[in-house]
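User: Now give one protein:

AI:
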Amino acid sequence: MLAKQVWRLSHDTDSLFYKVFKAKYFPNRSVFNARSTTGSFAWKSILRSKNLIERHARWGVGDGKSIQIFQDAWLPNANDGRILFHRGVLAPDASMAMLIDPNSGWWNNFVARHGQQMSLVRSTTTSVKWRPPRENLVKINFDGAMFRESDGAGLDVVIRNSEGEVMAALSEKIMKPQSAELVEIMAACCAVLFSSETGFHNSVFEGDSTTIIKLLQARNVSHSQSGHILKDILSHLNSFQSCSFSHIGRQGNVVAYALAQRARLSFPLEVWMESVPPDISSFVQLDLRV
């Protein structure tokens, strides 16, 4: 019976039961991330049942957006379902979506270790690894993220030179738009504006949304959902001496992606000049590895 209540607290999000318990015991995350051991007898009983479920339950991967690589149990054959990994490569709260090509649904080329090497194969993205731009150009990676646990979203941009050095970075938390496509085109617009405002007018823009990159390359302003934003982007591009848009896989866009996930905890707008937050610097260094 208590196991059923745990199920309700993870799925029946419209019920009064869910809203009361969430507000009190796990306001910012799911019931499976709740750690408070104080509260009513009912809550303590639910916690005991939750712990039992956690020991035996496994996530179905799907698109990976709801699963944390290191924190959640998703490996079917492991004792506790969790992966062992070099935490210096990915952030402790990294999402499984980072390992999945959003277009094909297949694993990106990635090697994880859990007692033995697992080959995660096939990627259909244009590029996998981040590469610095040519001399006298900057490369601007951008990403947008929808936060499932709240009504927020993140827009994030990082600008790097031909040596791979960070020239500027931005993280902005906004109200969640109607679709993931809109948040991606808004991130692209943010990247163009930020590049212009920081004085970089010879730019290569990279994003991991194939749909948005194709719209930007085609200059397709007739797109009904995001055409007005695309018009704004094209208007701002008139001040650029040179610019281009290219697609890169999630692995090659990991700095912007990590910043987008970090926006959950950010103030509405944060900007860094010639640096990134300390918890993002390892991703910058990873991109520079040969």
In short: The beta strands are 110-113, 117-120, 138-146, 152-160, 166-175, 202-207, 242-247, 269-273.
